[in-house]
Design a protein that fits this description.
The protein is α/β, with parallel strands linked by helices. Helices cover 46% and strands 16% of the residues. Helix 3 runs parallel beside helix 5 and helix 4 packs parallel to helix 6. It has a single domain, classed as Rossmann fold. Strand 5, helix 6 and strand 6 form a beta-alpha-beta unit. A 7-stranded parallel beta sheet has the order 3-2-1-4-5-6-7, sandwiched between helices. Bound molecules: nicotinamide-adenine-dinucleotide. The site of nicotinamide-adenine-dinucleotide has 29 residues, from helix 1 and helix 7.
Length: 251
């Protein structure tokens, strides 16, 4: 087991990639705090992990609210007495459309969750990790940060901020033995996918699939495999990496 005895907090783990990450971490022996703004989804995932013999608890938190993220980290620490891994996975997008048609409200929401959410979890988690003298943070960015395509400009920009802040956090936190890495997934068939497609038709899905050299979209299991590796001790010299999991899409 690659994560035996580690405590992992995963934001946005009530569906999609986060659900796959939470379940994979639990299978690898981690105690998982499933966190999401979506209470029903989060409770379902935690229950399914427990039913499969893993260890999980649900904690509702909106990453756009600092009180929530502080309460989340406090909960993880008090519940398990330690805290090893934070996965900043919660994310939203505006609908695929021309950049000038994205409303200010949509823009603010994308940045509030995708970027400021990481600011909030960082403020809560890093002091604890510093005190411990160790910790792992994994941010879920996107291929949109590396190889942006039309119609998702402000979402792409938010993920560009995530890859830059990942490297900046990695260098600033290295003296504290806190590793910070990111994953850049290609499109995956999660509840978020229709937002990226704009129009969800067999044709738009096929166009996405065809843009991936290895010929398929990503799955939660693909992303979870990257998280498990980066969170494990096998990756102890890896920090500041933004790893594409994209079937060659960004080449
Ligand atoms: N699916 C893709 O094609 C794709 C590609 C690249 C990157 N990503 C990124 O992967 C991550 C997971 O997305 P997904 O595709 O699994 O979509 P998803 O919608 O299934 O998962 C996102 C989760 O975040 C939660 N969430 C939304 N706002 C929140 C908030 N304010 N506080 C806490 N939780 C909140 C949602 O309830 C949901 O459970 C996101 O950061 C997304 O940007 C997705």
């Amino acid at each position: 087991m690659q994560l035996a005895g580690k405590v992992a907090v995963i934001t946005g783990s009530g569906s999609g990639f986060g659900e796959g990450i939470a379940k994979a971490c639990a299978r690898e022996g981690a105690w998982v705090v499933v966190s999401d703004i979506n209470e029903a989804g989060g409770r379902r995932v935690a229950d399914e992990i427990e039913a499969a013999g893993g260890s999980a608890a649900f904690f509702k938190a909106d990453v756009a609210k600092s009180d929530d993220t502080q309460a989340l980290i406090d909960y993880a620490q008090s519940h398990y007495g330690r805290f090893d891994v934070l996965v900043n996975n919660a994310g939203v997008s505006h609908l695929r459309k021309p950049m000038t048609e994205v409303t200010e409200e949509e823009f603010d929401q994308v940045f509030a969750v995708n970027v400021k959410g990481i600011y909030h979890t960082t403020k809560a988690a890093v002091p604890v990790m510093r005190e411990q003298g160790r910790g792992v943070i994994i941010n879920i960015a996107s291929t949109g940060a590396v190889s942006p395509r039309p119609g998702l400009t402000w979402y792409n920009a938010s993920k560009g901020a995530v890859t830059t802040l990942t490297k900046s956090m990695a260098i600033e936190l290295a003296p504290d033995h806190i590793r910070v890495n990111a994953l850049n997934p290609v499109a995956g068939d999660t509840p978020l996918l229709p937002t990226f497609l704009g129009e969800d038709t067999p044709e738009t899905r096929e166009a996405f699939r065809a843009s991936v050299p290895l010929g398929r979209l990503s799955t939660p299991a693909d992303i979870a495999a990257g998280v498990v590796f980066l969170a494990s001790d096998a990756a102890e010299l890896i920090t500041g990496v933004c790893l594409e999991i994209d079937g060659g899409r960004c080449i």
